[in-house]
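Run log, item B.
One chain of 67 residues. Sequence copied directly from the ordering sheet:
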Amino acid sequence: MKVKLKVKDMDCGGCLDLVEEAVRKLLGVTYAKVDLKTSEISLEYDESKVSLSDIREAIEKAGFETV
């Protein structure tokens, strides 16, 4: 599954690293790339191993909110 999520309050490279690292740790996530200009994270993941709500939760645990 491919999806893009808006992530609030990302404004630096450190934020980018935190969000990407949190999501990449999840089993089933095969791609995660943040674009600071659009405040979006592009994702590819295996729905049989991880859910979108799991991904959102990982981002929130890293200190950011998804829209």
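Observations after the first pass:
- The beta strands are 2-8, 29-35, 40-45, 65-66.
- Helices lie at 13-24, 52-61.
Flagged for discussion on Thursday.
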